Amino acid sequence: MSKVVEQVVQARLILSAQRSALLRVTLHYRGEDPLAVRMLFPAEYSLDAETDGQEIEWVFARHLLATGLDTPSGLGDVHIRPTRGHRTMIELRAAEGIALLQFEAAALRRFLWHSYVAVPEGNEHLYLDADGALAQLFG
User: Fold this and answer.
1) Helix (H, G, I), strand (E, B) or coil at 91
2) How far apart, in whole angstroms, are the C-alpha atoms of residue 7 and residue 65?
3) Helices (DSSP H) in the chain: which residue ranges?
4) Residue 106: its pLDDT value, please?
5) What are phi and psi of 63, to 5 degrees?
6) pLDDT tens across 21-38, in order?
7) Over the chain, what is the mean pLDDT?
8) In terms of Cα–Cα distance, which of 52, 70, 62 is closest to 27?
9) Given 5, 12, 91, 133, which residue has the most CB atoms within 10 angstroms?
10) Higher-confidence residue: 9 or 119?
11) What is the maximum alpha-carbon separation in the chain?
């Protein structure tokens, strides 16, 4: 049985020092992919003109989210850091540009807690299907 956690949260997309936009972001966690979390954004916020109305999905390590809530973390495309006022900044980098999003830390912690109820931290290996992943990769 697949364990799924999904939570819709509000984020503030930082457009400039004076401008921002509120948007709804769906956080998604699947027990069958226990090391990853997904963030889904409405298609209209994409810088890629070829989205065809599809939601934009970013996938990154659950551990990165957990670490980034307390200390600046991340390499490559996703960086997460705490900020003043019990908020968390998530920076997403792509060839099309950089998106800077501000979240209420409590909402991210709540999502993370539910993901730990689904698959306890440190037990992810019990939920991994290495043979299935290899078959999908090479099949």
Assistant:
1) strand
2) 15
3) 62-68, 105-118, 130-138
4) 98
5) -65, -35
6) 999 999 999 988 999 999
7) 87
8) 62
9) 5
10) 9
11) 50
Residue 125 gets which letter from DSSP? Answer: G
58 in Cβ contact with 92 (< 8 Å): yes
Amino acid type, 77: D
C-alpha to C-alpha distance for 85 and 137, rounded to whole angstroms? 43
DSSP helix/strand/coil, 35: coil
Instruction: Tell me the pairing of strands 87-94 and 97-104.
Output: antiparallel
pLDDT band at 120 (very low <50, low <70, confident <90, very high): confident
Both tokens of 30, joined, read 């699947």
Given a contact cutoff of 8 angstroms between Cβ atoms, the answer to whether 74 and 68 are in contact is yes
20-37 per-residue burial string, b: 16 or more CB within 10 A, e: under 16: eeeeebebbbbbebbebb
Q: Hey, which residues does 82 pair with through a beta bridge?
A: 88
pTM over 0.90: no
Q: Report in angstroms the alpha-carbon separations of 41 from 8, 28, 32, 45, 100.
A: 10, 11, 22, 7, 13
